[in-house]
Amino acid sequence: MPRGIPNAKRDESALRYTSFHVPLAPNPKHVGSTYLKSESQTVWSRNAIRAHRTRTVSDEAGAATPTETRRGAKVIVIHPGSRFLRIGRASDVTPLSVPNVIARRYSSTVPSQTYVEGISRPREDRKRSTPSTTAPPGDEYAVNVASDDPFDAKVAAITVSLRDRMRFYKLRVTTNSASIATTFNEQFRPEIIPEVNDPYHVDWIHSSEEPYLVGETALRLANPEEMGYIMRWPIYGGNFNTRDYPSAQLILSDIETIFRESLKLKGIEPSAYKDHSVVLVIPDYYDRLYVESLVRILLVDMGFKQICAQQESLAATYGAGISNACVVDMGAVKTSIACVDDGLVIADTRMVLSMGGNDITEFLYVLLEKIGFPYRDINLARSYDWKVMEDLKARLCTLAEGDVALNLYDFSVRRPGHATEKYGLRAYDEIILAAMCLFEPRVIEFEQKRAGMRFLMRAPDMAEEMVEQSADKLSERYTQAMMISTQHLFPVVPPPTTLEQAPLLVTPALQTPATTEGQSLAVSPQPGASASATAPVTPSAEESAQAAKEDQGGDVEMGDATVAESRGKDSKGEEGKDDETEKDEGGSEKEDERKVKSEPESTDKLLGPDTDKEKAKEKEKSAAPDAAVEVIDVDQLDDKAASQTVTATHPPPPHIPTQMPFSAFNIDVAFEASKLPLDVAIFNSARAAGGDEKIRKYLQAVLVIGGTALVPGMAHALESRLQAIATPLVPNMEKVQIIPPPKDVDPRVLAWKGAAVLGKMDGVADLWITGADWELFGMRALKERCFYL
C-alpha cells in the first residue's frame, strides 16, 4: 500500500496495475435510454426482420421460385447414441441406423481389444456346468444357494423374486431344469452350413487401404488388429467415451467423420450442408461440454445453415402425439427417465440409470456359461461374437413369467475364415433372469463400468464463464429426483416430534433380513454396489442378528410401507420367508397379505381390506416415539427454506462438478442415484414432479422407448411393480398405465420421429441458431433460444 493514503479501501476490481477506475453502476432511475427494453431491439428480432425483408425483395424482383419439395426435405435430424446413430431427413419415414463405431488405421502396434466387464462373474471353479441355485425337496418354489460364491447368492436372490411371481400366477416350476439343460448343451455338436445355403452370409473384409471405415463396414473387418485398425465407439452413455480415447480432439474428429460418412449414405454431399438445417437430439440430463462440442461440429466445422437442439424425452412425446408423460428411454448403456409437462421437460425429474441393454446381453452370457453354453470360443470383445449374444437376447429374453420353460433354441455363428456353424441350446429361467437385472441390479458392477472414464474440462474462456456463472445452477447437476433417491445415504438425523400422515418418499434402504425356520438367502453388500442393489439374505439366525447390527436398525420406513413391501413380492424372498413359513404364521390371512404385496394383474387386488389393516399397522410404526429412522415429510421436501440438516435433501454448493463427491457428505449423488432399480427410479422421478396429484398423473402415462423396451413382457413387468409401489404410498392411486408407442412405430426410433415432427413445424423458426449467432454468443445462443438450457 502506498504511503500517505490512510484507510485506503481494498481494490476489488481486479485491475490493480492501472490507474483506470471502474465507474459505479448507473442508477436505473436516472437512465433515460430505452436500449434493449423491448423485444424488437434484440439481435434475434433484428435477424428475423432482416430475413423477412430479404424474402420480400426477392419476391418483388421476380426471383425464380424453387421447385416444390416435401416439407422437411432440407432438415436433417441427428440422434447419436451409444450403439447406433439415427440420422435422416425430417421428411423420411424412418431414419438410417448406423452403428456408431469407427475403425481408424493406426500407425503403431494396435492394442488388443478388451471388454470391460459390467456384470459380476462367478469364481473360476464355478464358471461352467455348475448351477447357481438348487431346488429343495418339498416346495418347488423354494430356492437354495448352491455354494458360498457371492455370484451364486446374487443370482439366488433374483431367482427368489422370480419364484414369488410364478407362485402368485400359479405357474409350475420345472425341477432339475439346470441339470437337464447342462447335459444337453455339453453334448451338443454344431452343424456346419455351407456358404451357398446361408442366406445371411457375411462378406468379411480381409484387406483394406482406407484410412478409416465407419458403421457396418467397420464391423465386417475380419481381424482389425492384424490389419492395423483400431475400433472405437466415440459415444458412451449420453457423453463422450473418454475411456478409449487419449484426447478429446480425437473423439470430436471421429464423431464428425461418422456424421459425414452417414450423410453420404443419404445422398447429402458436403457442398449441400450450407442449404440444410439440423435438429440435434440431446440427452435429458446432458453435459454442457457435450452439447457445445456437437453444436460446434455441426455449425462451424461442417457448416450447416442453422441448428436446433432438442431433448430426447420431449422429442419422444412429439413422436407419440401426447403432451404429458413420464418418458423412460432404455438404451444400450443407460436408461434415462424424465417427466414432460405440456412441452417442457421438468428438470427436477431427470434421472439416469447406469444400466441398459448391454447389461442384459452380458448377464445372459454369464448365465448361459453356467449351463454349458455350446459355443465355447466366444469372446465378447469381438464384434461378431457380441452380435451372436445380441441375437440370442433379442430372440430369447423375456419378462413374461408364462414364457419360462425348458425350451430348445438354435443360433448361428459366423466367423471370418470359418464356415457358418449352427448350434442348439436349451435354457430355462436364464431367459428371464437376464432381463430382471433391470429390476434387481445387484449383479451389476457399477464401479467397474465407469472405471477409466475421465471428466473433460472446457478451455477457460473468462468472458463466457462470467456470463454463464449465474446459469450454472444445481438443477443442471443434481436433480431433485436424484436427491430423493440418495437421501438414505445422508447422515441420520433425529425424527421430527410430530408426524403428519402423508405419503413419504420411496428410497432404497439397507434392509435387515428376517430369519425363518426354513432356508433363506444371503448376499453381503458389495463395495461398489448401492444399497438398493444389495441382496438381503442370510442362511442362519446368528448371521441375521449380526447383519442387523451392521445395518444399524433394519428397514428404513417410508410412512405407509417399507421398500421391501412397496416393491411387492419381489422382496418376499429377500426377507427370507418361504410359503410354508407364511402358512404356519398366519394361515389364510398371510396368504391374502402376500397377494396384496405381490405384483397383481388388476388393481382390485390392491384395494382389499387387508391393505387398510396393513396401512394402519405401518402408521402405528411410523408414529412410534422410539423410531430409529429418518422420516421426511413431503411438505418439508417441497419447502425451499427447510434446513439441510432436517431434510437432508438440499443441493450441494454450485461450484462442485457432477463428478466430484458431495463435499459435506462425500457422496456422488448422480452416481449413487444411477444404481437404483428401474421401478423405484421411475416412482422417484414422478415424485420429484410434485405431490400426489402429479404422481398419479405421470404414473398413468409412462412412455417406454428405446431398444430395451422391445423385451417381451416389459410393459406388464413395469406396470405390476409400479402398482405395488404406488398403491400403498399414493392415496387414490388408480391403475398404472404403460403407453405403447404408436402403431407400427419402432420404439427405438420414436425420439427421432418426434424430432422430425418438430423440424417440420412452423414454430421451430424461433429456435434456429445460425453460425453467425454462434460466433456472436457461443453457448449463450443455445441458452437464449432453447428454454431448457
Automatic annotation (TrEMBL):
Residues 113-143, 516-631 are annotated as: Disordered. Residues 529-541 have a biased composition (Low complexity). InterPro entries: Actin, ATPase_NBD. Residues 566-575, 584-604, 610-623 have a biased composition (Basic and acidic residues). CDD domains: ASKHA_NBD_Arp8-like. It holds the Pfam family Actin. Gene3D superfamilies: 3.30.420.40, Actin, Chain A, domain 4 (3.90.640.10). Coiled coil: none annotated. Belongs to the actin family. This is Actin-like ATPase domain-containing protein.
